[in-house]
Write a structure and sequence with these properties.
Structural class: alpha/beta
Number of helices: 5
Strand order of the largest sheet: 3-2-1-4-5-7-6
Helix content: 10-25%
CATH class: Alpha Beta
Radius of gyration: 16 Å
CATH superfamily: Vaccinia Virus protein VP39
Shape: globular
Amino acid sequence: MSHSPAPSPWITRFAPVLPAGGQVLDLACGQGRHARYLQAQGLRVTGVDRDGAALRALQADTAGEWLLADIENRAWPLEGRVFDAVVVTHYLWRPLWPQILASVAPGGLLLYETFAQGNAAYGKPSRPDFLLQPGELLQVCAGWSVIAYEAGLLRTPERVVQRIAARRPLGDSPTPPAPLL
């Protein structure tokens, strides 16, 4: 079994509130530190990444659905699918916000943690396109029930992050309504 880094404490903190046997999307799953952890908690995991070698390693020792996809340059591979939770860590591609939010089932959870403005002082990423702006996750999740939100400097290793756990409203339709003519 390959050993990936330990899962983020942010993800392990909220995993217990996910429904037993629930379906989770791990977006930009990489080597699967969260996919493996969530699968071990009895959750059904779908992982998406553009790194074929990482997905093959994950597939070799972890049950789940593993999708090789370049989500920044190709069509969204999960159109119309919703999950009890969507997990995103250390990844930011703003044009995907609508697809990410639409992938969370009504009543489901978004667990998101990535680098934020100010991180350049501690290393990479340092480009503004890859750093959340102050309060950006709160703006993205406007209208959702925010369970927890944190922003600031973390130690070991030192980095500046934003992270949110937000529940999509129950009455929220999975796809936006068609415009009235």
